[in-house]
Amino acid sequence: MNQVKLKQENYSFGGVDYRICSLLDRNQYDVNDFEARQLGISSATWPLFGLVWPTAQVLVNRVIAEILTGRRILEIGCGIGLASIVLHRMGADITASDYHPQVLPFLERNLRQNKLSPIKFQTGNWETDNPALGEFDLIIGSDILYQPAHIDDVSQFISRHSSADVDVMIIDPGRENRPRFTRAMRELGYNYRFEKFDEPVHGKQRCHGWALHYHRHFPAA
């Protein structure tokens, strides 16, 4: 990672401060990341994993208010893994997942510098099966609906890794793919409700969009 510039910033959630290392900006690119190239990750999309996006901060604010005890939680497309780090510190049973090869090194670095133990991590490629990942009671993600071609893959991935009684929370900045994703989730048996938000985040920014909530329950046989 000598090819890229980094920055350190402080974030506060639930009265706890976190020191997060991320890419300096979205112009960073490691030309020697051959694994990313083999996965089809272009120079333009390569840095997206390594930024702390406003929607990720909104996700943290929402999910820390949920009942977490006794629930297996999965963050999909975790990127820098902000929500996973916060939930891990809270003692939640959280698994972070992403397909970008640099996610885990950044996640491990941020865990160390916040004096946290290692976290559960699994490769989360929406287009392939990963039986080792298992099923979860709460699945969370932020701004994952930006690629029209991935909508069906994302909904199917969520369904494959949903427990019999599952909640899904997606923080979306108003992507046009939201209606199509919701139709796909409905066809898979999920009920839904939306919550519009407009709230301040780090650096005096504001983030607006929709908190998408989905729920599916399969009665015991």
Helix content: 10-25%
CATH superfamily: Vaccinia Virus protein VP39
Shape: globular
Name the helix and strand elements from N-terminus to C-terminus, one letter apiece: EEHHEHEHEEHEHEE
Question: What is the number of helices?
Answer: 6
Strand order of the largest sheet: 5-4-3-6-7-9-8
The tally of structural domains comes to 1
Give the name of the CATH architecture.
Answer: 3-Layer(aba) Sandwich
* Oligomeric category: single chain
CATH T-level topology: Rossmann fold
Distance between the termini: 51 Å
Structural class: alpha/beta
Strand content: 25-35%
Q: Main beta sheet, described?
A: 7 strands, mixed
Number of strands: 9
Classified by CATH, the class is Alpha Beta
Low-confidence stretches: none
CA gyration radius, whole angstroms: 17 Å
Describe the structure.
This protein is α/β, with parallel strands linked by helices and 221 residues long. The chain has a single domain, classed as Rossmann fold, CATH 3.40.50. 24% of the residues lie in helices and 33% in strands. It is built from six helices and nine strands. It has a seven-stranded mixed β-sheet with strand order 5-4-3-6-7-9-8, with helices on both faces. A two-stranded antiparallel ribbon has the order 1-2. A hairpin with a 3-residue loop joins β8 and β9 (205-217). The protein is globular and about 55 Å long. The relative contact order is 0.14. The model has no long low-confidence stretch (mean pLDDT 94).
